[in-house]
Amino acid sequence: MRKDSRLSRMLHVLIHMDRLGGPATSERIAKMLSTNPVVVRRTMAGLREQGYVTSVKGHGGGWSLAMPLHKISLLDIHNALGESSVFTIGLSDEYTHCPIEQAVNKAIKDVLIEAESLLLERFGEVSLDVLAEGFVDLPAPSFDEGKGY
User: Where do the TM regions start and end (predicted)?
Assistant: First the structure.
């Protein structure tokens, strides 16, 4: 089953960006995440549209936080990424005429809806500064040593 790690990866990036003291290029972020700069730009664009980051083109440009971490919640980033569901559990659709499959799907769907609602509520209560609390004494990341972050 494919997992979507965009939320955790973007939280990781945003906390690093807070500590950089200047813009981070898509190339620098891509190196940190072991991905392609195009993927970084596409993902960060959703965050920019919601006002969480800004970008400047050209020499000395890159991505920067548009607001402090304490004003951004996990839910904000989840929503900005456009994720439709936090769970990847799928319902069976092979025997839609079968009353047993219908009952099983309804039970699973109801539980998933309730669990997702609780999870998203909790996401809204956690700001990014809380995630970053344990890292204030660590040196700022360099990203440039070829070792990721």
Answer: none
Mean pLDDT computed over 78-95 = 77
Separation CA 141–CA 43 (nearest Å): 21
Within its chain, how far is the Cα of 20 from the centroid? 19
In angstroms, how far is CA 68 from the centroid of its own chain?
16
Question: What is the SS3 assignment for 13-27?
Answer: HHHHHHHHCCCECHH
Q: Is 65 exposed, middle or buried (0-12, 13-18, 19+ CB in 10 A)?
A: buried
Cα–Cα dist 68/76, whole Å? 13
By the 8 A CB rule, do 128 and 74 touch? yes
pLDDT on residue 149: 45
Asked whether residue 121 carries a pLDDT value surpassing 60, the answer given is yes
- Here the CATH number for the domain that contains residue 126 is 1.10.10.10
Percent of the chain at pLDDT > 90 equals 50
Start-end of H helices in the chain: 6-20, 26-33, 37-49, 74-80, 99-125, 128-132
Q: What is the DSSP letter of 55?
A: E
| 80 within some domain | yes
Q: What is the domain extent for residue 120?
A: 6-135
